[in-house]
Design brief:
- With 83 residues, the chain is mostly helical.
- It has a domain of 54 residues.
- It contains 4 helices and no strands.
- The longest helix has 22 residues.
- The termini are far apart.
- The structure holds zinc ion.
- Zinc ion binds next to helix 4.
């Protein structure tokens, strides 16, 4: 299988949130793919950094990084005052 199929699963793998059958598939791919192993290491490093920050009570504003890309703020259309 190609890396793209596993790209979304790597952050879940780092967080231990994969279903057993997914874990098996990802681990099988990781055994053959250096690139995805490096990616997983990145996710794990980022996650442990967040864990350490959480222990200090400091939560950075980018805490939503693991729950997908945040939506851009809704743009308010400014109404002109009616006369
Ligand atoms: Zn791969």
């Amino acid at each position: 299988m190609k890396c793209e199929a596993f790209r979304d699963l790597l952050p879940l793998h780092a967080g231990g949130d994969l279903e057993p059958h997914e874990l098996k598939a990802v681990d099988a791919h990781l055994a053959t793919c250096v690139f995805c192993r490096l990616k997983l290491d990145e996710f794990r490093a980022t996650k442990s950094l967040f864990n350490r920050l959480a222990m200090t009570g400091f939560m950075p504003p980018v805490a939503g990084i693991f729950s997908g890309v945040p939506k851009p703020p809704a743009r308010k259309t400014r109404k002109k005052p009616e006369k």
